[in-house]
Design a protein that fits this description.
With 214 residues, the protein is α/β, with parallel strands linked by helices. It is 55% helix and 14% strand. Helix 2 packs parallel to helix 4 and helix 5 runs antiparallel to helix 6. The radius of gyration is 33 Å and the shape is elongated. It starts with 6 loop residues before the first strand and ends in a 10-residue tail after the last helix.
Length: 214
């Protein structure tokens, strides 16, 4: 029976499960060696597989119903040939029973279109997650992100300056206690955590040892 490099001859249920995990759609040809209509339409199936197979999107398989009776029962195959479009996860879409070239061609073309559209939707979603949210990027998206970050930082810096002034005042009246040391550590930690340039922010902080007493 003619085959194609684009067609996988299923040798175990696990092999089919793997293909259904790695591809959006699988077109399956349930056939039998004694089935003359299966032999008659096999060249068309091979040609369609060569034309429309898409790596990680659309796969074509042949399943011998005598060798894999459990799979035939699982997919309710009762006549040969039977062609199924099986979607990721095992759900069956289109079905063609019998050697009908026109219906088989139309089914495969629909499956190929669906696989391309599914791949295009995934690519579009990935692209949406990239540009426009990088800090400092050009364009309105980058400016909006930057302005939100700067606004949040300004509020934090105001709090740091206030605490710095209070701690400096206490230091001038008699030195720091252990509570002041703890406050200094925590504020410097959060200053570096939320700042765009952590090292510079820590050095500029009124809590820095270099700035102590200024």
């Amino acid at each position: 029976m003619p085959s194609s490099a684009s067609i996988t001859d299923i040798t175990s249920p696990t092999q089919l499960t793997t293909l259904l995990t790695t591809h959006a759609l699988v077109v399956a040809d349930f056939h039998a060696s004694w089935c003359q209509p299966c032999h008659a339409i096999a060249p068309l199936f091979a040609s369609l597989a060569t034309t429309h197979a898409q790596p990680h999107r659309l796969a074509f398989v042949k399943i011998d119903v005598d060798a894999h009776q459990a799979l035939a029962r699982q997919y309710s195959v009762s006549a040969m040939p039977t062609f199924l479009v099986i979607k990721r996860g095992g759900r069956v879409g289109d079905t063609v029973r019998g050697a009908d070239p026109g219906r088989l061609r139309a089914m495969v073309e629909r499956a190929a279109k669906e696989a391309r559209e599914a791949a295009g939707g995934s690519a579009g979603g990935a692209g949406f997650g990239g540009a426009g949210r990088t800090l400092g990027a050009s364009g309105q998206g980058g400016a909006a992100s930057s302005s939100r970050s700067v606004g949040g930082e300004a509020g934090w810096q105001a709090l740091v300056r206030k605490l710095g002034s209070e701690t400096a005042g206490r230091a001038g009246r008699g030195g720091e206690g252990w509570g002041d040391v703890l406050v200094r550590f925590l504020v410097l930690y959060f200053t570096s955590l939320f700042s765009l340039v952590p090292a510079e922010a820590v050095q500029a902080s009124p809590f820095s040892v270099k700035n102590k007493g200024r």
